[in-house]
Amino acid sequence: MTVRLKRLGMGVAMSVVPRLPASLAMRITPSPVWLVSLLLTRDDPAAAVRCLKRLAATSPEIAALLRIDEQLQSGAIPADAIADAMPIPVLQAFVTTGIAPLRHAAKAFNALGCLRLGGALRALVLLRVAAANIASGEDRGWQHEAVLLEIAANDHCARFMARPEVMPEACRTALQEELQAVAGWSLARKVSVLVGQDSPAMPALRARMAGRSLRFQGPSSRSSDLDDTPADLTCVVGYSGPGSLARPVDSIGVSLYKKHKIAAMRGDGLLHHMADVQVPVLNPEDLRQERAFYADLIEKYGASLTNVRWASLNSQMNAGTELFVWMLNCGASSVSVSHLDLFLNRTYPPGYLAGGKAQASRDGPGWQMEEWSQLKSFGYHEPSQQFAIYRAFHPHREVAYDGILDAIVEKPFSAYASALEDGYRVWRGRAEA
Length: 433
Hints:
- By secondary structure, the chain is α/β, with parallel strands linked by helices.
- 54% of the residues lie in helices and 11% in strands.
- It contains 22 helices and 12 strands.
- The strands form 3 sheets. It has a 7-stranded parallel β-sheet with strand order 5-4-3-2-1-8-12.
- Helix 10 crosses helix 11 (141-153).
- The longest helix has 22 residues, at 115-136.
- Mean pLDDT is 88; it is low at 1-10 and 355-362.
């Protein structure tokens, strides 16, 4: 049955599986937790929670995770002690079975709002992949190095590495040595992990931006202690008019547009605002479906393409993180970041969510994403990956964050995941299932 499901193709499977009886669907999917993720993707959290309840009754590992979740909610254990609280049989099961079920579990718990637990499971996925790479003796290139950058920023990894069940001693020693090397990497060395081959326009853009100061202004509707600090160019995500900005800007130097933003602007008749941007930037992955349409955008508005490796270990960089990495690769003298708090502030400018207000609610002058809609995105954009990138570049003198982002990345990832869960969690736990 699983083979037949694979042959159907993922698109067909995602359409067919939710219509099957839950007991059958759970047997034929790549892993039972995959169905929970799928139902959350399809905006059916009630069915996902019912599926999770069935899993808890048949899987000791899932039942144990839900008990840990209850302990986290009650305060019986702190967020940074999840690795210590995981029973030996459960941990052994997670490190000896396939990586895919573990990856699906991390995604599902993130999308359920159990972001502390999801972040810890992501740490196990990272360690499993790193250990397999080291054991193979093969050079995995940037894929392995991207995993190392994330391991270094996710404090659950160090706690799990202290557990003898996770990996052999020789592998642990080798990984620790690699992580020590990562701590000494230069900014350029880290950037090289996250970007690929230059797009044709990149050399000219790099020459244009060399030696200039860049400001990445995020979409968080709040003040920033960098508000009055000058920069040569301001870069934003998805500029669709002045109403999409957290703070008024005289001129937009760069704006990155992902396909969902392009679709929203297209539907709202706002694509002409790309002409207001000196350098509109698109993701080349988005060009695959509507080549003619995107080719027209490139020609009409002089858009460039990113060369950022936006997906790593089944997690996709969100638009802000992708733009930040692209800016670091432009040869600027400095990159500063304001109005960005990694989703801890849920309020956005009214024009930022153009076309997406069906999944948002008004909050004074701005808008807030509905909890389930935002949680769904945490299933695609692993908070651990996004956090790791900002933390990785925090020590470098060429990079400056405003006070709020500074405070976020100076703390461990487990603290960030806890704050994120405090702001977004909807499902209260097994009692609701």
